[in-house]
Amino acid sequence: MALRRHIKGFAFALREFIAPTYRPERHYMRGPGPACARRAAAARYA
């Protein structure tokens, strides 16, 4: 059973390497970024 688990894990890792699944939560930006902070700071002093 352990061999089957290792083979299954290897197959999953190989598939993720070749064709990774897209997960939006990995790429979701929480809150404004640094460019927004620079614009806000520039607007305050302008």
What does this entry look like structurally?
The protein has 46 residues and is an all-alpha fold. It is rod-shaped. The model has no long low-confidence stretch (mean pLDDT 85). The chain has three helices and no strands. It starts with a helix and ends with a helix.
Give a summary of the structure in a few sentences.
This protein has 46 residues and is mostly helical. It contains 3 helices and no strands.
Name a few traits of the molecule.
46 residues, mainly alpha, rod-shaped
What coarse outline follows from CA principal-axis ratios? rod-shaped
Q: Strand-residue fraction?
A: under 5%
Portion in helices: over 70%
Low-confidence stretches: none
First-to-last CA distance: 68 Å
Structural class: mainly alpha
Q: Kindly state the mean pLDDT as a whole number?
A: 85
How many strands? 0
- Number of alpha- plus pi-helical segments: 3
Computed CA radius of gyration, to the nearest angstrom: 22 Å
